[in-house]
Amino acid sequence: MSEKHLSSQFDSELGAVSTRVMELGGLVESQIRQAIFALSQFSVEVADQVTETETRVNAMEIEIDRDLSSIIARRQPTARDLRLLIAISKTTANLERVGDEAAKIARMVRSIIQSGSPRSLPSLELRVASDMASALLRKALDAFARLDTEAALAILKEDDLIDKEFDGFVRKLVTYMMEDPRMISPSLDLLFLAKAIERIGDHAKNIAELIIYIVKGADIRHTPMAEIESVVK
């Protein structure tokens, strides 16, 4: 069997796995949209749909990892191809964790509704941060599909904005709890919900870092932004 034929088979298998990763990304994106809708409308029904999807997300992660293990065992890739496969595996793990965060949001929404005082809390203000996190994940998936390091760099910078939204929201919740002790329990639910949204942004950032790792061969985790810019450019 010729080297060209082996390469063509590898490319075909790699393409199939990449397609599955993008399908997983689309499923997780829909989870986030549903979770945000459940929050804005205080809908238990939609929240339940989010948690039901979690099983499917987990199954897809296992299937993709199994396919990746098979490719590595049979093809024994080296250099850039191996980096790509490792990065796909890590991207899959990050997407599964985004799904976990969406399910966590859904559970918190249910808890807030059951507390009996959801309308008195500033939950709608989380919409800005949640929309930013959802958009950041979408950009990360698009950049991953194109292996676009410039787009990945922009995502790393944008994640800081979500962190600032989170910090501002925490300060507001603390004020609510100080003014009315009855708001402490539902406010804590909302705080955990806000943290879940922030974590979605973090996972999008992780995927952006993996794009740079694939293309440039550099691990830029915990690296100052100035150094990351020099690696990309």
Detailed description of the structure:
The protein has one domain: Phosphate transport system protein phou homolog 2, domain 2 (Methane Monooxygenase Hydroxylase, Chain G, domain 1, Up-down Bundle), CATH 1.20.58. Helix content is 86%, strand content 0%. The protein contains seven helices and no strands. The chain starts with a helix and ends with a helix.
Q: How is the topology of this model organized?
A:
Layout: H1 3-41, H2 44-75, H3 79-115, H4 126-146, H5 149-179, H6 184-216, H7 225-232
In short, what is this structure?
The chain is mainly α.
Radius of gyration, in angstroms, nearest whole number: 20 Å
CATH class: Mainly Alpha
Structural domain tally: 1
**CATH superfamily heading:** Phosphate transport system protein phou homolog 2, domain 2
Number of strands: 0
Look at the structure and give the mean pLDDT.
87
Number of continuous helical runs: 7
Helix content: over 70%
Principal-axis shape? globular
| Series of H and E elements | HHHHHHH
CATH level 3 topology: Methane Monooxygenase Hydroxylase, Chain G, domain 1
Share in β-strands: under 5%
Q: Which CATH architecture is right?
A: Up-down Bundle
Question: pLDDT under 50 segments (min length 5)?
Answer: 1-5
Main sheet properties: none
Terminal Cα span: 40 Å
Q: From the helix content, strand content and strand pairing, which structural class follows? A: mainly alpha
Key words describing this protein structure:
233 residues; mainly alpha; Methane Monooxygenase Hydroxylase, Chain G, domain 1; 0% strand; disordered N terminus
